[in-house]
Amino acid sequence: MRMFLKLNSLRKPSVHVKAPGVLALRWRLQRCCFCSSPQNESSNISVLRHLTSKIKATGPISVAEYMKEVLANPVSGYYVRNDMLGADGDFITSPEISQIFGELLGIWCVSEWMAAGKPKHFQLVEFGPGRGSLVTDILRVFSQLGALLQSTNLSVHLVEVSPRLSQVQAQNLTGEDSQSARDENEPAYRRGTTATGLPVSWYRRIEDVPVGFSLYLAHEFFDALPIHKFQRTERGWREVMVDIDPDMADRLRFVLIPAPTLASSTLIQADEQRTHVEVCPEGGVIIQKLTNRIAEYGGAALIADYGHDGTKTDTFRGFRGHKLHDPLEAPGTADLTADVDFSYLRRMAGTGVACLGPITQRHFLHNMGISIRLQVLLQNCPNAFTQRHLLQGFDMLTSPKKMGERFKFLALLNHQRLSSPVADTKSGKKPPAPLPVAGFSELGPLQGRN
Ligand SMILES: C[S@@+](CC[C@H](N)C(=O)[O-])C[C@H]1O[C@@H](n2cnc3c(N)ncnc32)[C@H](O)[C@@H]1O
User: DSSP letter at 353?
Assistant: First the structure.
């Protein structure tokens, strides 16, 4: 299904778009950067102190525990602190690069909602919404299709660990029209209403999101979840952990734990061929919860991230100030990430849902009609600067050397979505085949499209 919208509010190119050559090498850097301020330095020292006292008390900690402390510690976590999105920061992801990205995902959502028989209650759920740009672009698509969704009870649900980012999202989505929960035991810690009257709620965990027909989106979310690292040795799999460097008390280092750990005994597949493996059990648990919800209540999930299909080994890294950063250096001042293992996510989904993909971002966006949407925007856009910005964004999102190949899309669907309805025995009428899943069906050869 294709729908194209009128150019209305093109995102201002306020975010610095790096030169293509630079981006090819450092696709992740478009994401987060913040300047090193005195506040950051003192926060860095306190994160380091916290980690070293923990290690002194209990011994080396897993990489998963390290990531969790550094990224999501309620006081000092990288995602929790507000200066990550400072005025000078150049945090940029696909939804931040171009409005087209969110618009096409909006069309994907409408398409899946229609294929499910236009359920009356429709929850749009996003994990890790960053600044809220993706959901803003999606809601603009929804409001332009107002007639179609008019009698639908639509609500927006955001799963966000960062109180500061939730404020940014609330400002962008609801203006002043949101309030924090009075009681901290309430499932939603913030609630608001968009300008068009849609209710928006914020949660810390998927368990808190109401059940019901939902379309779940996760863009650059799974890569931020904690991973365990393992190394194959002559004596079997061993876990890589984080310890204090014995030569420098204020430095951390990786160590290989000599005895098996619970994680090394339970998280590795028996037929694993690689010598170094990263596993994200938290991601696996979220996928299982999504699977159960989609199987029971209907809906779909669309997961987009950079990653591989069970082939890569050592991808844990940090990024700071647009540069690769030693992930153990100055913890709390840099983003930590690991490539998403899509084969693991599919395995965790099991047979409860149908999985499509992963396919590359380039294929997905072309299948969704990004080239045609670009042409419409270019035709409606009079000024050369904005046209150049649109073309740059298109190139960044789709070029194989930039984000086109590294980023992948995986869909989890209720099984009914792909099954043919049973033939009517009385009339003998052949039922229509299920609608193709937008973005995952080939619309034609890719040659010459980039
Ligand atoms: C790299 S940002 C991506 C933001 C956005 N999706 C985008 O693409 O622009 C990761 C997002 O996930 C959130 N996040 C990280 N870990 C989380 C967790 N365990 N639970 C909920 N949100 C989390 C962060 O606060 C942030 O909003």
Answer: S
Cα–Cα distance measured from residue 233 to residue 264, given in angstroms and rounded to the nearest whole number = 12
Domain membership flag for residue 238: no
Distance 71 CA to ligand 1 centre (A): 10
What is the domain range of residue 303?
A: 20-44+89-225+279-313+337-417
Asked, for residue 429, whether it belongs to a domain, the answer is no
User: Of the candidates 142, 190, 204, which has an alpha carbon nearest to the alpha carbon of residue 3?
Assistant: 142
Query: Nearest 5°: CA angle at 226, between 221 and 232?
Result: 125
Q: What is the pLDDT of residue 226?
A: 98
Pick from 165, 15, 185: nearest CA to 77 = 165
**Looking at ligand 1, which residue's alpha carbon is closest to its atom 13?**
128
In this predicted model, what pLDDT tens digit does every residue of 86-118 receive, in sequence order?
334 434 789 988 999 999 999 999 999 999 999
Which ligand 1 atom is the nearest neighbour of the CA of 80?
A: 25
Residue 95 has, within 13 A of its CA and on its CB side, a CA count of 23
Which ligand 1 atom is nearest residue 282's CA? 19
Q: What is the pTM of this model?
A: 0.89
pLDDT tens per residue, range 189-247: 999 999 999 999 999 999 999 999 999 999 999 999 999 999 999 999 999 999 999 99
Domain count, the chain: 1
- Please indicate, yes or no, if residue 173 is contained in any of the structural domains: yes
Nearest CA to ligand 1 atom 5: 130
Determine the residue of 32, 85, 131, 160 to mutate for testing ligand 1's pocket, defined as the one with the most ligand atoms within 8 A of the Cβ atom: 160
To test the pocket of ligand 1, the residue of 31, 68, 221 to mutate (highest count of ligand atoms within 8 Å of its CB) is 221
9 falls within a domain: no
CATH of the domain at 406: 3.40.50.150
CA distance from start to end of the chain: 22
Number of the ligand 1 atom closest to the C-alpha atom of 94: 8
Q: Is 395 left (phi over 0), alpha (psi -120 to 50) or beta?
A: alpha
Q: Once rounded to an integer, what is the mean pLDDT over residues 422-450?
A: 70
CA of 375 to the centre of ligand 1 (A): 31
Q: Which residues line ligand 1 (CB under 6 A)?
A: 31, 72, 79, 93, 95-96, 128-130, 159-162, 165, 219-221, 224-225
Place of tokens 């876990």: 239
